[in-house]
Amino acid sequence: MKKGQSGLEKKSRLAWAVCLVAIFGCDDAKREVVDRVTPHDSTAWTSRSDCESLLAERAPTSRAPRIATWNIRYFPDSIEDEQTDPDKATDVPWLACAIATLDVDILVVQELKNSEAGLEKQQELLDELNALTGGDWQLELDQCSPAEVQHPGFLFDAARVSGEAFREIPSLNPDPVCSNSISPGFGGYFRIDGGPDFHLVAVHGATGSSKTQFDKRALTTAALESVVADAYAIDPDEDIIFAGDFNTVGCEDCEPASSNEDEVDALGQTVASLEPSLALLPTSESCTRVADDMPHIDHVIAAASMSEIPGEAVVQVGGICQEIGCDRQVNWLEDAYDRLSDHCPLILDLEAVDDD
């Protein structure tokens, strides 16, 4: 032992050593030591500089029309309240780089704030995206009050995409007000150059595992049927996609209790029974948010008849969830968790056709 160490420091070091020998029941120590010696590649999620370097090196490639959804936790504060420490706020240049690496035409977003700081950072994000991609990125966001709570919407490259009929969809919010717990849906009609046109609806379901919140989510799911009918009244195109954070965490207070997996299964069965029938698309990973229980709460749901979605399509879960394979969090991805989001982006490729 070094001279000058206190008895508490000695005990701490001893406990650490015992933990490493036992390697059970000491998750923090295990992560710290194992991660230090575990080789890992640089990715868009290991740091902002890694992301920017990899993006600069990437050669242009052709791809299918692509959409994605991502809950960008309480942008730009990264917390519910106003952020007072800029080093803990959303890292906007890194976020722009991460979005650019997804190489999407449209990104469905959740949890963006319309506060004064939020509006400033929204513009910064658009400027960063345009600089990185050479595109013409635009943001259409729900405008319900209050401005400082989370809002859903669409981020899209107008160089490749046209959008119209943007609107708030109150029926997807069982509450009379907007809050950080739940928000209304937000809809639009999009056309992707060289690809399909379709209705698109951003969703953010009620958060929480109480029976009250569980019942609110059931009301949101049931309302999808009327949302489809309203969309068809705007444009008769029967192609429609719902995407976002449905918050299918289960219900601890219900009798019997419902798990995350139970609620996801029920969501799939319910949307399939609606008229017209909708399909809950499968995902490449079993989680979409990084937490102790690694829940699967973000989803993409589409009209079962939508032929522009490839047969046997699988929504690719990216970000931290893909990096860790829905296993435990690792140290080299903690900055992405802190400065980007605890949620992971979901990516869906569409057919480069328009069959309607």
- The averaged pLDDT comes out at 91
**Rg (CA only):** 21 Å
Under CATH, the homologous superfamily of the largest domain reads Endonuclease/exonuclease/phosphatase
Number-wise, the strands total 12
Task: Provide a descriptive summary of the structure in words.
The protein has 356 residues and is α+β, with helices and mostly antiparallel strands. The chain has 2 domains: 11-37, no CATH class; 48-349, 4-Layer Sandwich (Deoxyribonuclease I, Chain A). Helix content is 33%, strand content 22%. The chain is built from 9 helices and 12 strands. The chain has helices spanning 7-22, 27-37, 48-57, 92-102, 116-133, 211-234, 260-273, 319-324, 334-339, and strands at 66-75, 106-113, 137-141, 150-157, 161-169, 185-192, 197-204, 240-245, 278-280, 298-303, 316-317, 346-349. Helix 3 (48-57) runs parallel beside helix 4 and helix 4 packs across helix 5. The radius of gyration is 21 Å and the shape is globular. It starts with 6 loop residues before the first helix and ends in a 7-residue tail after the last strand. Residues 1-26 have low confidence and may be disordered.
Brief digest:
It is built from 9 helices and 12 strands. The protein is α+β, with helices and mostly antiparallel strands.
Q: What keyword list fits this structure?
A:
356 residues; alpha+beta; Deoxyribonuclease I, Chain A; 2 domains; six-stranded mixed sheet; 12 strands; 33% helix; globular; disordered N terminus
